[in-house]
Design brief:
Elements lengths: L1 H20 L2 H6 L2 H8 L1
Helix pairs in contact: 1-3
């Protein structure tokens, strides 16, 4: 679902969050700011 919605750019963002949070699952759901930035 996330891949379809945001594409590869979203994956890169998740990777950065994974390194910061050490939990990819939480990073995907806990980053509303990056989501808005990508939309704009």
């Amino acid at each position: 679902i996330l891949k379809k919605k945001y594409g590869p750019i979203r994956i890169l963002n998740v990777n950065q969050y994974s390194e910061s949070i050490n939990t990819p699952e939480e990073g995907e759901e806990s980053d509303p700011q990056p989501e808005m930035a990508l939309e704009k």
